[in-house]
């Protein structure tokens, strides 16, 4: 595929159509409050950290997001994605220096999923992290091949095939690209909502207190029907990518 990949900072005018690309994320995944704060500040703070891929016609077919942040003591935290993006925002707002960079998302146009484009964007994101001066790209990865919400991520993340590669397709992409699985981020994303919001996001009734299995979720959503709220806490997997810098 004839692709042109570059930081959004090089063509900020693309913001006019940047959000038009279709994605395959489940609706509920679009309502992480910390994540949405990051995306709302892309144009102000993170244009150098966001990559865009254009096909031969000039159409956006893939995007890759990252953000510099402060990582205390070098330990990767349990609240992976949310921690990194909150830290990235606060680092910029307070005018402080980042000592790490996180991968936030790689989005591929649905019609091009399975073509290897995700690997291309991952490599580009790693290289861009090196260009920005970081020795590692830290990725709180969402293993979207995990369909059994009852299996702990601590077990699933380290399951391998006969060739030694992870059973999960997205983890496998990262390991093939040279990434090293570090640890599970057990509460990487937290998505709270009212039961009415969860009904709208999923089409499910959310009328009984207890765990609710939601298509596309990696763990059960915990519903408190009596109080009218439900919360999803998603585990991710921290992966380290050396940039060669």
Describe what you observe in this structure.
The chain is an alpha+beta fold. The chain contains seven helices and nine strands; from the N terminus they run βααββαβαβααβαβββ. Strands 5, 6, 7, 8 and 9 form a five-stranded antiparallel sheet that branches. Strand 7 and strand 8 form a beta hairpin. Helix 1 runs parallel beside helix 3. The longest helix is centred in the middle third of the chain and has 15 residues. The mean pLDDT is 97.
List the helices and strands and how they pair.
Layout: E1 4-7, H1 33-40, H2 42-45, E2 50-54, E3 60-69, H3 80-93, E4 100-108, H4 117-131, E5 136-141, H5 153-156, H6 169-176, E6 180-194, H7 195-202, E7 210-212, E8 221-224, E9 229-242
Antiparallel strand pairs: 1-2, 2-3, 3-4, 5-9, 6-9, 7-8, 8-9
Helix pairs in contact: 1-3
C-alpha Rg, in Å?
18 Å
How much of the sequence lies in strands comes to 25-35%
How much helix, percentage-wise, in residues? 10-25%
Quickly give the structural class: alpha+beta
Taken in chain order, the helices and strands follow as EHHEEHEHEHHEHEEE
First and last CA, distance? 28 Å
In round numbers, the mean pLDDT is 97
Largest sheet: 5 strands, antiparallel
- Quick one: overall form? globular
Uncertain stretches: none
Number of continuous helical runs: 7
Number of strands: 9
| Assembly state of the chains shown | single chain
């Amino acid at each position: 595929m004839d692709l042109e990949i570059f930081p959004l900072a090089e063509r900020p005018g693309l913001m006019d159509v940047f959000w038009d690309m279709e994605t395959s994320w489940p609706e509920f995944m679009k309502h992480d409050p910390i994540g949405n704060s990051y995306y709302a500040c892309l144009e102000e703070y993170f244009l150098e950290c966001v990559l865009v891929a254009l096909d031969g016609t000039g159409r956006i077919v893939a995007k890759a997001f990252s953000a510099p942040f402060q990582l205390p003591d070098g330990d990767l935290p349990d609240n992976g994605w949310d921690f990194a993006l909150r830290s990235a925002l606060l680092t910029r707002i307070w005018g402080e220096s980042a000592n790490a960079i996180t991968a936030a998302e790689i989005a591929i146009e649905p019609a091009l999923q399975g073509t290897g484009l995700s690997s291309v964007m991952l490599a580009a994101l790693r290289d861009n992290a090196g260009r920005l001066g970081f020795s590692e790209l830290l990725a709180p990865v969402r293993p979207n091949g995990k369909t059994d919400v009852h299996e702990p991520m601590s077990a699933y993340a380290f399951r391998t095939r006969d060739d030694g590669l992870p059973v999960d397709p997205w983890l496998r992409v990262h390991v093939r690209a040279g990434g090293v699985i570090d640890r599970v981020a057990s509460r990487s994303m937290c998505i709270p909502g009212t039961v009415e919001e969860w009904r709208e996001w999923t089409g499910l009734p959310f009328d009984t207190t207890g765990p609710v299995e939601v298509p596309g979720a990696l763990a059960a959503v915990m519903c408190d029907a009596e109080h009218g709220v439900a919360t999803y806490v998603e585990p991710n997997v921290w992966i380290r990518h050396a940039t060669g810098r």
